[in-house]
Write a structure and sequence with these properties.
The complex is a heterodimer of chains A (323) and B (426). Chain A is α/β, with parallel strands linked by helices and 323 residues long. Chain A has eleven helices and nine strands. Chain A has a five-stranded parallel beta sheet. Chain A has a four-stranded parallel beta sheet with strand order 2-1-3-4, sandwiched between helices. Chain A starts with 22 loop residues before the first helix and ends in a 9-residue tail after the last helix. Chain B has one domain: Metal-dependent hydrolases (TIM Barrel, Alpha-Beta Barrel), CATH 3.20.20.140. Classes of the chains: A alpha/beta (323), B alpha/beta (426).
Chain lengths: 323, 426
Amino acid sequence: MMRPTPPDVLPLRHLLTTDGLSRPQILSILDLAESFLPVGARAVKKVPLLRGKTVVNLFFEPSTRTRMTFELAAKRLSADVLNLDVAHSSTRKGETLLDTLRNLEAMQMDMLVVRHAESGAADFFARHAAPHVSVLNAGDGRHAHPTQALLDMFTIRRHKADFTALTVVIVGDVAHSRVARSQIHALRILGVPDIRVVAPRTLLPVDIETLGVRVVPHLETALRDCDVVITLRLQRERMQGTFLPSEGEYFRHYGLDAARLALARPDALVMHPGPINRNVEIASAVADGPQSVILEQVTNGIAVRMAVMAQVLGRAPGQESAA
Amino acid sequence: MNRLTLSGGRVIDPARDLDATLDVHLSEGRVLAVGAAPAGFCPDERIDVQGRWVLPGLVDLCARPLPDLAQETRAAAAGGITSLCVPPEVTPCIDTPAVAERLQHQGQQDARARLHLVGALTCALAGEQLAELAALRAAGCVAVSQGPGGLTDSQTLRQALAYAASHDLLVMLSPRDPWLYRHGCAHEGATSTRLGLPAIPGVAEAIGLARDLALVELTGVRAHFCRLSSAQSLPLLAQARARGLPVTADVAVHHLHLCDTDLARFDTLCRVDPPLRGMADRTGLRQAWADGLLTAVCSDHHPLGPDAKRLPFPQATPGIAGLETLLALALELVWAEHLPLSRAIASLTCAPAQALGLPVGTLAPGAPADLCVVDPEAIWTPTAQTQVSRGLNTPFLDRPLRGRVTHTLLGGRVVYRLDASGSDWP
């Protein structure tokens, strides 16, 4: 089911954040992803859209799922893919980020997919990239992870008819989560009227309400009658020290178990960006239960990343938006 | 030394409550008279400055005119600044009399501004061994400081302040709680939350200030607080001054103009230390500057090469090259009626000079003939081409400003002149 793309929707040159995207821009990516979903189910899982294009995956942080799905997405679009694992590359020998970029440009890459531990790193690459190079943010510090947020929106849309009637709960380490920030922007742009975030105050950034969410102190209160529950991954290093006393205490208050999930609408979706910590932020029974769409998110991630790549690299020259 | 008369300008010298159209007569590197020429005075040169302002040369409480001292002090001269206080954290660190003397010597040879050196409180600013403070003063240092990092260990700070007090040295302090500052690169608020930047809450400064004020009271040292940025610090400072503690404070001009929202999408030119704070902080700082609680405004000049800012925001080096826009940015807030002209000029001249006990910042007869002439109506736009400093790291380029320096005199000698053919450093 393809909706016609409105003529005023300019394709993106880069995708750095969901903050500031327009509703039609997001919808056009989701629509395109919808058309790519069957590709993965075919015997020959390839379309020739990006034949002859070179995509570089530049990952300064370890990643399995995101890097693999970006790689698969590029390959299914018939692009040539280079994976630069920075643990073994010259940045370890003191090369600056700018020199890395210039060298990759000298190899005539068309698209850079970048993950980096510092917030703003993707914006940095986009600001300094040659005019023909597009940058996709695969996660920068705590700032943004836009393709994750878009695949989450895609997954929600496949199950829920109307964003403007939804109540969404985000529970977990919002403070350190680029995923949560990108989800919040995307949900707001798509018109979700009630976004509730739940976390101990050590894991909530100040003034989070200014992003358009409501802080609800107790998970039980937040879950009541909600349509979507997004649990966030609790990084190992947050379980020690002063963010939290223990993972046990975290699970007792903020873990999503079957009893708590029963407070949500019976058809509520359970989502998680992965990888999950079983029985830390989510009970195994819930992660594997009928309401969980966690693995569907992974599958959808390939189609959504194909859509973003196709749109960014398929744009006509000069026809682009500043975002 | 030549004799010189600046004729017909509006002389503004807040130190003497003077604002009138008068001639200024200079002789032997000093101000001879303001008003009528002394009997028999015959200047070698007369500069007509009608329609312009004649101000004492500006006193900048924090500027790093290195590594290219000659070029950076040309930038200072272009900004009307004749006195620069150099903090100890420059390279090499000003922690021994030898370094201080070498820098003074270099200043006398190359500089188009007076250098007032601030010595290090501890060796290499490492916070462990006291530097030879009395020797640093003997070598010309006007104050001592621990640099922007401050001292984590309160016992060490107490000892350092007590020792400085016993030699009647002024201590310049950058108050901060080191733990709340750790890893932070932006003000904690809606902007840091949206951008996902490691953040520093405003209270990090107030907590540091509360500790430092308590130790100032305990040790009886004279202290000056550098570049306050948080509105939460201001009542603490006001209370301390009301109690009669010998403390003063300054603010960096960029904190009066910008706030965290100017980070926009990770603009590394807006990466400064302390960070640009929130809108309410900026409002509070402007008021405290107008009231005189923040006695001086400084440039916090820190010229950087392009590579220092071509990095992801958290990795970029903090700092703004601010010498050339200090006066015009202060005047912007006069034009916007945030404070009277005389108060703004005072905060750039006599107030910083008095805070550090420097014999400059006024046009009183006998004072060094350091002064600048300003065309208050000139609209100009600083650009990468006009920037004299080696550092192009300023968010204020390409923004029109009103009020421009046309002459700067240091010890009675013209060190900068702007005319129709452009800038000149005679």
